[in-house]
Write a structure and sequence with these properties.
CATH topology: MetI-like fold
Order of helices and strands: HEEHHHHHHHHHHH
Strand content: under 5%
Number of domains: 1
Shape: globular
CATH superfamily: MetI-like
Structural class: mainly alpha
Number of helices: 12
Number of strands: 2
Distance between the termini: 46 Å
Oligomer: single chain
CATH architecture: Orthogonal Bundle
Length: about 280
Amino acid sequence: MITKRNIPYLLILPALLGFVAFKAYPILAALYISLTTGAGAARTFVGLDNYVRLVNDPLFWTALWNTALILVVQVPIMLLLALVLALGLNSPLLRLRGLWRLGVFMPSLTGLVAYGVMFSVILSKDSGLLNWVLGIFGVDAIDWLGSPFWARIAIVIALTWHYTGYNAVIYLAGLQSIPKELYEAAMVDGAGAVRRFWSITVPQLRPILLLTVVLSTIGTLQLFDEPFVITGGGPDNSTLTISLYLYENGFRYFDFGYAAAIAYALTLIVAGFGLLQLKLTGGKK
């Protein structure tokens, strides 16, 4: 019987059923699969064997190291560039603001596979555009995709190009929400541009800065498309990430039990990093 009391529950029922079918069930099924081994329906329960294997797997630790290295190098560079771009786009001296903002945001609209292929061509050693430009200045051709060091740099360059504009737009929205009266009062008190930036802009942007740091960290820990398309995880596993290693175990070797264990390990790592960042930055305040 439909009454006013149960109408709200009936309205949320479709969403609840969708969550159970497409979220809760896969999560619980993946947890069970991570405790088994075998192919298809013929699975054997092995308990925590896949997790023990994970801890003793040197390739997993290589993937974790690569992911952490890209995270530590790329995310600060990207967010700093995004903040600088946002400050420039918010400047009253800038003309054609809409055009500049569109240009900054356009890279984030590019499909992941499409821009990955584009960068694999641009970074080609023999016929790439970047090496051609460097050659004009007398710099020898760099093997961007064939050297472990430069391959990591290539991934950092691609990620920075694609996501900097997205974060810049977020920062720009935050800058535009800061009351102008704060800057006017600071100028009356004799505060210079640098002092106003550190005393007004940064504190006012703190929640947004925290948001972008957390989102960028989570995104980098789940990094898959760029290494898969641009470098294939090579050379010599130098750009192998956790998500790419998960994919290889699940869909190349069809070891779904071990792949599910990697997925849960990645989930715990992402949750741990998120909680740590919130604690260190005082996110609860």
